[in-house]
Amino acid sequence: QVQLVESGGDLVQPGGSLRLSCASSGTIFSRYAMGWYRQAPGKPRELVARISADGSTNYADSVKGRFTISRDNAKNTVYLQMNSLNADDTAVYYCNAFIRQLGIPLNYWGQGTQVTVSA
């Protein structure tokens, strides 16, 4: 069973920065693609950033140039560095772990961490 625990969410002023962390346990972390998703009130959950097992990354257009996803396989942790935050970034941020085993897609989710951008 994969367990994911997010941390780092907070209240921050517009233009500020935050770094989210997601610690994984119960699996071989390096084999998983890891992602950050977010869900704002009344909106569907959306992909923010993703990093594959080989380290390639992709980002939502709305965060390109502002957010950076990275992983430390030795610490079983994935990070999301968020800069130049604005009100549209306010959401609950969820960590995701994905792998295909025998062709079957498996997704695991953390409990979420709240990011609020407000003056």
Describe the model.
- The chain is mainly beta and 119 residues long.
- Helices cover 0% and strands 55% of the residues.
- It has strands spanning 3-7, 11-12, 18-25, 33-39, 46-51, 57-59, 67-72, 77-82, 91-101, 104-109, 113-117.
- Strands 2, 4, 5, 6, 9, 10 and 11 form a seven-stranded mixed β-sheet that branches. Strands 1-3-8-7 form a four-stranded antiparallel β-sheet, with no helix packed on it.
- A hairpin with a 5-residue loop joins strand 5 and strand 6.
- The relative contact order is 0.31.
The assigned structural class equals mainly beta
Strand count, sense and closure of the main sheet?
7 strands, mixed
Q: Cα-atom Rg, whole angstroms? A: 14 Å
Oligomer: single chain
The level of helicity is under 10%
What's the N-to-C terminus distance?
A: 40 Å
Count the strands? 11
Shape: globular
Count the DSSP helices. 0
Beta-strand residue fraction: over 45%
